[in-house]
Acetyl-CoA C-acetyltransferase
Amino acid sequence: MSERLTDPGYRRLSPVDLAAAAAGLALRGATADIVAAVRQFEISTPWSAAPLGRADNFPRAVAARLGQDPKRAILEVTGGQAPQRLVTEAAGEIAAGRADTALIVGAEAISTVAHWARAEGRPDFTEHAGGQIEDRGYGLDGLAPPALAAHGLLDPPGQYALFEHARRARLGLSHGDYRAAMGALFAPFTRVAAGHPHAAAPTIRTAEELITETPSNRMVADPYPRYLVSRDKVNQGAAVLLASVETARRLRVPPDRWVYLHGHADLRERDVLDRPDLSAYPAAVAAVRHALDLAGLDLGDLATIDLYSCFPIAVFAVCDGLGLPVTDPRGLTVTGGLPFFGGPGNDYALHAIVETVRRARRAPGTFGLVGANGGFLSKYSVGVYSTVPAPWRANGSATIQAGLDAVPAGPRPGPPGVETYTRKPGQDAVVVARGPDGRRFVTSTPEEGDLLMARFRDLPRPPAA
Ligand SMILES: CC(=O)SCCNC(=O)CCNC(=O)[C@H](O)C(C)(C)COP(=O)(O)OP(=O)(O)OC[C@H]1O[C@@H](n2cnc3c(N)ncnc32)[C@H](O)[C@@H]1OP(=O)(O)O
């Protein structure tokens, strides 16, 4: 479900409206034992605000619209991994016989809220549903490093920009060549978005257009102009219904609509400043590998792939680790990705799952993979979907996580110098550097990008702390 401000018949739908509309289509009269919801951005941090008001119990508010009173209502922690994590958890609950059906829902109306926040005659989205809720909290532990906070760099564009320049340094690319690579990665995404009925920005753009600064493609955080950044001004909702085979049969869901979860994994990366390599995402790579192993597949067996794409590095880092060419002819998105389809808060991957399921139904017997990223390349959840029947198999994420956590924290040993940096317009650059003692530190400098670049190549000493 989606609506744009410019749509004829625009209705100012709230997140509950959007989620309920999507959930109604998924349920088609079925009853959900569990309703598990993805958290809206407006309740994702202690400092978030909901200027139009909000539901006090989002999953139950959605259920109530559909005349349902589920046994369990869940509100998941913050993060873009949430949709896939919830699908995997719910599938396990059903396999264990603790539920017959589970509905996963999510929606954002960030565009509508931003538009009406200070306008006359604004709608009131306050809603009292009450009742039981398993609110899992923000789940933000480790996501706000004080050293970055001290330099005002807690926002996603700023932190992802650091990862991007770290990758540029690793590859030894000039600013221009790296920008060109980001444009080349995302230009095909714009073509997919242009063909998706729910895309927020369905405009085909060339690589050159994506990276050329213009008034509408203004610099957000070097190296990102706006077109390379997740687009949060969207109104989008999605829902996924899970059921056991017996229940699907009882509900008379036609068997050609049954799609099974073949592989899955949920892994977590170290806190940002403890990572050996700021350009890499080993937890995501391990999650994709493990989900494929569980499904008994190789990358080459997949018909569709959707890698979370809030910023280019989220795709690059997974492709780098897997050895998957970014030019893979299957494409790396089924929706158009977060800057073009839209980045509805924590909810994007639910849309990717819906589209993957649709494509699996259209091509029975094929397999599709969804990779869902949360935080600052912090949490990755993967699902592999197909119409081919598969038994439930628990994953081995805990064992793999222990292996990832055993890698020593902190930067790889190396000479002192700049590891990465970013700069927001009109501000000093924020620099992450390795000191003479091998420790990582964060500092700010008014120096220009070219001078910082020189530090990548010739690193006489770190900038003054
Ligand atoms: C794990 C993760 O997912 S991390 C990612 C988390 N997500 C984020 O951090 C979101 C990052 N993105 C953003 O913060 C914002 O998109 C920004 C800052 C990059 C740009 O936002 P803005 O400054 O509002 O951009 P701008 O005003 O240019 O508007 C962008 C587009 O939205 C439209 N728009 C702006 N305001 C509104 C509004 N209230 N309602 C509807 N559309 C709007 C504009 O018309 C423009 O559309 P166009 O592309 O067709 O020209």
Residues 457-465 have pLDDT under 50 and may be disordered.
